Fold this sequence. Notes:
This protein is about 35% helix and about 5% strand. By secondary structure, the chain is mainly alpha-helical. The model has no long low-confidence stretch (mean pLDDT about 85).
Amino acid sequence: QDVDVLGDGARLSGVRFTDRGRGAQWENTASAVMALGFFDGVFGDKGAASISGEKLSSMQSSLLHQLEEYGSVLASVRGGNIEAYEKHSQDPNYPGGSDTGIGWTYLRYPHTAATAWTGLMMLEANPFAPPEKPLPSADGPLDGRCPVSWR
Length: 151
């Protein structure tokens, strides 16, 4: 759990990048909510890796809170800069972002991938599922036009 001390003070639940990391990494949190929600939907309480609905709900609420608060999902809600990260700052308010545990950090900036995964989570979309309609053939005529009408 991270506290957004530089924002509104909200307590936010997420997952770390690795087991050696510190601080939530929100792109992974959104994809974890999607995966665990799907797992629970298929296996329910029969699955050995089942996670409580309360924890899932808390992670989902944390992502939605950031969308409302910032208009995007941040890479990390933890403060600090790369200098604080490199010095292994012990200041809880400015530790240098969310440390991955494998040699880099995610700093407190809007994060495109975290926001995109949160959008997919909200849509309950599976970006790895095969498309409903077959993709156009690569052998088709290439006349420079987009096969989809945008009007």
